[in-house]
UniProtKB/TrEMBL annotation:
Residues 41-136 form the Methyltransferase type domain. It comes from the Archaea. This is Methyltransferase domain-containing protein. GO terms for molecular function: methyltransferase activity. Keywords: Methyltransferase, Transferase. It holds the Pfam family Methyltransf_12. It comes from Halomarina oriensis. GO terms for biological process: methylation. InterPro entries: Methyltransf_12 (IPR013217), SAM-dependent_MTases_sf (IPR029063).
Amino acid sequence: MEWTEFYRERDYDRIAYLAGEEMPDLLERFFERTRVPETMLSVGCGPAVTEFAVAERHPETSVHGVDVSEDLMRDNRDLAADANVENLTFAVDTLPDLDTDGEYDLVYCVATLFFVKDVDRALESLWDRVAPGGHLVVSYPSSGTRRGALEMDEQSQAFFSLVVGEENLRTRADVESVLGVKTADFWAAVDAPDEPFVTFAPTVVVQKEQ
Ligand SMILES: C[S@@+](CC[C@H](N)C(=O)[O-])C[C@H]1O[C@@H](n2cnc3c(N)ncnc32)[C@H](O)[C@@H]1O
């Protein structure tokens, strides 16, 4: 099943897929250690639990979430309107190429490249949208992702076919070679607990030069 069908056909959970309830606080810790972005683009935002938290905690930050699923974007938009969250917008957009224009202080793309075949082109699209001095936080599909996927039930594993088939796996060195810059480990940067998501979803942070 594809993600678009998944959100259309299911009563899906409103969860942060990566790091669950901890993720909004981990990202908040990142802001404390760097700065609160004025603009944030989240690619593959899913049900946008972290994005809602950022928008509610930081009314001065404009948060824009995009995802491949039109149904999900409509649901997210309705939820933002119901909750009177005015600094949070949503649109349909699909990696590896993005229609979304502009440059953002933070481009955030977690637990999404697992489902993208052309990881390198996707990384370039994400990096292109980082403003000078801004940050990219991105998870990439790795051998650790594959080990985790192989432990999933058959239905969940089907979503990870590119990872399981070793079609889109990357190392941190690969990511650095595409971006042309050194990265830092996001989980270490925010003192994330030693939990399975750290190896399942290696995530790096990189800052663009001013
Ligand atoms: C595992 S969920 C992660 C959602 C969110 N980032 C989180 O951590 O809760 C993966 C999301 O990526 C979206 N997605 C999958 N392929 C995509 C693509 N090519 N472009 C944009 N979004 C995509 C899916 O619709 C899904 O919402």
